[in-house]
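User: tokens in, sequence out, please.
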């Protein structure tokens, strides 16, 4: 049983081995990031939000809820933004100039009908894969964002609707598509279905080719996803935050940064017109005070 305070965990640098694995594979499976009582409280909060969404008619026909911008729906979700055992990977892999542009709560009941053919393989972020003018097809696109998926239900067996990934595929700009996607096609070579226990998480580079899968089991799948990107990239979700709310007042300065707060638009670029980098950007300040800025890693400069 660890007695390390949450903050110390959050600011414990990841190892070179983990960084290398992430850079090579495009993802990391991290075990036991949620203590069981924490996981249960998160699940209870998810169940409440799920019921609210269903009552508001926002579930799909089979009872699936895919709620974008869920963080401000519970105190526990706001705290999850800087959850120590995971947050250390976020700044360790992406640096201090980050926030969440995209987050979703997913409840996927057992499929009510036989699986229809679909091709779900994609890299995240839509036009980010087309707009940047990197014309050399062999030059990998920039990562730009990464995402953590907290596993809340038991995904220890395949067939429970887990995310499928192709390890190492984040450096490939294309994935061959079957000629006919109206029929069932085999998964691409190298596919891995991420089986994991409740309380585990996986962290992935948004470029890694991945797909959802159908929940063919009798267990409802529950996941919480939080994406982190650079502060100079626009939000993807519509998550209006009431800054007069208790929820906002309860957020730490780092959490407020991670929710998109900034004193000035230029601040998103790390610019302080009186100097160059704004030393008061909360996460940068936190890392600096702890001696964790590192000139040899550009995103930690
Ligand atoms: O729900 C899933 O398994 C996949 C979700 C996904 O594509 C994503 O979070 O980017
Ligand atoms: Fe995705």
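Assistant: Sequence out:
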């Amino acid at each position: 049983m660890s007695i390390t305070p949450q903050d110390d965990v959050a600011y414990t640098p990841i190892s070179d081995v983990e960084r290398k694995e992430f850079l090579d594979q495009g993802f990391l499976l991290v075990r036991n990031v949620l203590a069981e009582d924490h996981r249960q409280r998160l699940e209870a909060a998810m169940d409440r939000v799920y019921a609210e969404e269903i009552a508001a008619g926002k579930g799909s026909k089979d009872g699936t809820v895919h709620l974008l911008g869920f963080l401000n729906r519970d105190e526990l979700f706001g705290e999850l933004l800087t959850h120590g055992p995971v947050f250390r990977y976020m700044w360790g892999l992406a640096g201090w100039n980050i926030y969440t542009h995209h987050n979703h709560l997913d409840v996927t009941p057992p499929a009510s009908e036989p699986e229809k053919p679909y091709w779900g393989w994609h890299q995240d972020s839509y036009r980010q894969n087309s707009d940047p003018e990197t014309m050399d097809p062999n030059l990998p696109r920039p990562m730009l964002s990464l995402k953590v998926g907290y596993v809340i239900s038991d995904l220890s067996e395949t067939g429970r609707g887990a995310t499928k990934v192709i390890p190492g595929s984040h450096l490939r700009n294309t994935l061959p598509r079957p000629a006919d996607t109206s029929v069932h096609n085999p998964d691409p070579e190298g596919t891995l279905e991420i089986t994991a226990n409740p309380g585990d998480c996986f962290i992935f580079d948004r470029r890694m080719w991945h797909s959802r899968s159908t929940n063919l089991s009798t267990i409802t799948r529950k996941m919480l996803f939080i994406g982190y990107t650079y502060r100079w990239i626009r939000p993807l979700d519509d998550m209006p935050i009431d800054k007069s709310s208790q929820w906002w007042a309860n957020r730490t300065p780092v959490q407020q940064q991670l929710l998109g707060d900034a004193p000035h638009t230029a601040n998103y670029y790390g610019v302080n017109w009186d100097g160059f980098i704004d030393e008061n950007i909360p996460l940068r300040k936190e890392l600096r005070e702890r001696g964790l800025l590192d000139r040899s890693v550009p995103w930690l400069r």
